[in-house]
């Protein structure tokens, strides 16, 4: 489950950033992988106390150093005033009225990862059941 309230983004330090590993044995490969000269794609898990965990979407691997903005949201202690389920077919309910100061909880009830984003915020990938 992810909860968001409107906040202005600011640069932050001190996050733990880890590459996402996958069960490479399913395709008889070793893990972790190294990208070849043609690059590749990867995901990152980002965490820090006081913030909601975040998984990025796919990031292109390149041979030179690169910088990426990764959206993070502070943990919100307030109870959700609206709850929206993310399903295979979309959002339930499809529309809600959200006022200033309201807290919206998104719950991924699908079997696949999903992300929710809006003007100035991004949930990162929400795992099934999150």
Task: Name the helicity range.
Answer: under 10%
Number of helices, where a helix is a run of at least 4 consecutive DSSP H or I residues: 0
Q: Unreliable segments (pLDDT under 50, ≥5 consecutive)?
A: 1-9
Largest sheet entry: 4 strands, mixed
Strand sequence of the main sheet, in spatial order?
1-9-7-8
- Average pLDDT: 76
> SS-based structural class?
mainly beta
Radius of gyration: 17 Å
Q: Tell me the number of strands.
A: 11
The sequence of SSEs as H and E is: EEEEEEEEEEE
Question: What distance lies between the first and last C-alpha atoms, to the nearest angstrom?
Answer: 4 Å
Overall spatial form: globular
- Strand composition percent: 25-35%
Describe the structure.
- By secondary structure, the protein is mostly beta strands.
- It is built from no helices and eleven strands.
- It has strands at 2-4, 16-19, 40-42, 44-47, 54-55, 59-61, 82-87, 90-92, 104-108, 114-118, 121-126.
- The strands form four sheets. A four-stranded mixed sheet has the order 1-9-7-8, with no helix packed on it. It has a three-stranded antiparallel sheet with strand order 2-4-5, with no helix packed on it.
- A hairpin with a 6-residue loop joins β4 (44-47) and β5 (54-55).
- The chain is globular, with a radius of gyration of 17 Å.
- The termini are close together.
Please name the defining characteristics of this protein:
130 residues; mainly beta; four-stranded mixed sheet; three-stranded antiparallel sheet; 0% helix; globular; disordered N terminus
